[in-house]
Amino acid sequence: MSIVLWNVNRIYQSGEVNVHALKNASIEIPDKQIVAILGPSGSGKSTLLNVIGGIDRHDEGEITVHDHDLTKMKDKELTEYRRNTLGFIFQQYNLMPTLTVEENVEVGKELSQNPLNMKDTLEKVGMWDKKDKFPYQLSGGEQQRVAIARALIKNPRVLLCDEPTGALDEETGKKILSLLKYVNETYGTTVCIITHNNGIGEMAHKVVRMKSGEIIEHYYNEEPVDPEKVKWV
Amino acid sequence: MILRKSILRQFKEKKFQYFGVIILLLLSIMLYVSMSMGISTLDNRNDQFKEEYMQEDFHMILANEVSSDQLEEWEKNYNLSLEERLYGDIPYNGNGTTLRLFSNTNKINIPYASEGKLPEEADEIALSPVFAKAHHITVGDEIDVKGRTLKVTGLVYLPDYIYVLERESDLLSDPNTFGIGMTTEHTLQSIADKTVTQILGNEASEEERNAFKSAVTENYSLLKWMNQEENPRIQFVESEIESSETMITTLPLFILALSVFMVLMIMKRRLEMQRKEIGTMKALGYRNSELTKHYMMYATIIGLVGSILGVTAGAALSIPITDLYSNYFNLPSISYFDWDPRVLVIGFFVPNIILLIMTYFVIKKPLQQSPLDLLRPKDTSKGKKSLLERLPIINKGSFISRFRIRLLARSKARAVYILLGVMFSSILLIFGATMYKGMDGIVDSTYKDIMTYNYAAHFKTLQQEETTKGESPFTVAEADIIEINGEKAKEIEQQSMIYGIEPDTEHIQLQTEDGKLLHSTLKNGVVLSEPFASALGLSKGDTITLENAYNNKTIEKEVTGIAKVYIGFSIYSERSEVNEFLGYPKGVYTAKWTEDKPDNSEDVLFIENKQDIIENFESTSSLTRYSVFGIAGFAFLIGVIVLTLITNLIVEENSPSISLFKVMGYKDQEISRLMINVYTPIVLLGFLLSVPIGILSIEQLMNSIVEQTGFAMPVQLSWLMILISLMIILFTYYVSLFLSRRKLKNVSLQEALNKQQD
Ligand SMILES: Nc1ncnc2c1ncn2[C@@H]1O[C@H](COP(=O)(O)OP(=O)(O)OP(=O)(O)O)[C@@H](O)[C@H]1O
Ligand SMILES: [Mg+2]
Fold it and tell me: What are the ABC transporter domain coordinates in residue numbering (chain A) (predicted)?
């Protein structure tokens, strides 16, 4: 089962002008794979991801995620869908400033029926030894790892990542990418990564390219490279 | 929920904010609970005492003796209950203190012994607890009364002396100069120079009572008739209960409103600060209901802590308040629980329910935004520029002034809050200041400007003897205003009197507030006292119909002026007119004003010493004066909390700009001037608005209680008082500025850079 978009359109009305953020986007995101969505700024990547994630509404077309038809869902059902199926990672980490690392991850854990083990998860992201620190005591990369742990611990079927490395340097960024790949391999989580860093495309099973709201190209990588070896641009 | 942990940490981090609102809430609830409990205790004690100890419905004094057969006959004929009681006034201690001793009764006005027992043997005496306390007497002591040694067997309360006044026309009670007690009839007759027999009555319907009164008037010479409804010794406690009720609810409600408003602002602020986190949580699948519950916890904790502390403190504080009341009102505590448990329930639930409902509505909307909207930085340009910002002048000035105006325009709620907080404190202050001045005014104008006599002697019978120099005769009788300009007038609960005076008397100087003498107008009509005019809404030129209680004759008169007599319901007319009205022979009088102390002859009913009244007033009003300082302190406290909370919030809200300013090299002081001093004009505006509102509200208050209390207050505010109030408000403001400057100092430079990441 996978995520399928069929002729999806999203038009933002801002004042007089209409922004066609998604134009007849049709794409399949195969189950248990890593998909990279590439494209220049403003090309509609985030819009695509948000529509898939049920935090934005599309205007036309159809979206099914593991047989759920998002088109017909009410807000409450969308919440349940996100709660049970999805993990979100944003470029900004948005951790609760008044909660420690462990507690921030707990925020994600509470949502899940069959969460992963706290210690395992924090060790995976390399934050176990800092579990009692507060967000302001962490570097950006560390905060992003906590945010990943928060999404991960839910053991979601799909992990949606919007520019997860956008604020990080090459070394940290690559560590995060390795982590995402590890999650994909270990738990069979479908991972969608948005990035305008074309190099990251090399590590994905499937690459989707966007431009001005349209999907201009999509292809499978024969042999995805190890995240440590991607070209960082 | 793990999020709960974040609440406690938030409370710790923003100690001041949460502590401040909790204190506000606490003050509001404490005030309500303590005063309500005090009043409900008073009310319950009063009701119980009245009923169980058979408070009189009326009492009368006749010029001649009545046989017990006659009493029985009356009881049968008019279906009421009557009992005789003797009393006499005895000088105590030789320094002007009067002790009024009563004989025992067992049907009406039954004495209640709170300690010890009632006197049974000769030379035994029981005293009212307040008097005993004021004169350091305890049960078992022997006291010296007019050379006789009397044994104090107990402490006693009388149902018709709840508010212990020497004379019904007195305003305030003072246990230092007057008290009551009980002794045997025999002892009373042997130590009092003179005793008076009262006939007490109750259990009569109003018609029976009236019929009885007419019958008595026909056959006997009635010196005095006093209905319970007009008896200040009984009514004062009831009017106090009634008039306190508005104060009890409005003041706490105002503070409650201030604290709820503050909680709402803090919550809004919290939500704004955490919008991205909320958005992320929603994206992760948190339900609206879960997040709502989480943010409601803040209000729940504030509400619970504030109300539990407030109710507890209020209950504790009600004890001294009740004590204070029991110094004023002589009411025994007959049952163990006098207070009303409903007060606790209301004090606990009402604030919590209001707080929770309001918070729910304030947080509902932001929490219901889509996660995407929440994740985006708040779109400030989306909101149109406010009218204020679009004014052309604003966009001209310097950067600084533009910045300040924008700040004001962007946080209108805060400006309104400051305005309300300042107004609340200022109104309290002005209220207090007016009271303070008003107390002086009452004494000065009533007793110094108008009543220029020293003594008044009231006689039992009509007098004809020429008065000498230094004396002015007058006739006084009970009379009511029954019609105003041809329409039925409102009934006044208290006794109203008509005074027939000599127009050329030197012993009373009826004058208006502007100092215009009114005596010459008496030939055209009557002059009214200030409380009377204000209770009935009368002014110069109105026509009134008077009815006297003596023979129920009526007469129509024009009101020719309102005299600045601030105490009592009095009508002044010419003596000849009043004598005619009452059907008295020409030239008689019932009382006289004198300069020197008159002799206490057999004929004299009582002598009024003006100096005593003034001293009495001054000594008791000192309590009111202290409470004015209490009010000022309270106003200051509320003001500091409110202003500091708000400036704190403003600093917090603007901390990114503050740290940016700091990075740019602005000094703390300059930044403070930039952000917080913006509110100086609002503080001043709040104060200016409060002056008329404070004066109006005290006028309103005085008008609403004039009918029960029988005194009006000259409402004049001096510039000095305004200035002092303003100083206190400005001081409050600067204290809060000082406190928030410390907060400003703590805003770090890093913050600016950190925030840039978002
Ligand atoms: N709420 C909105 N209202 C109006 N226009 C919007 C809104 N959100 C996005 N857009 C517009 O839709 C288009 C696509 O935006 P989107 O955020 O999907 O781009 P993106 O590919 O994620 O860009 P970036 O790499 O900069 O994040 C842009 O032109 C953007 O201006
Ligand atoms: Mg984007």
Answer: 3-233
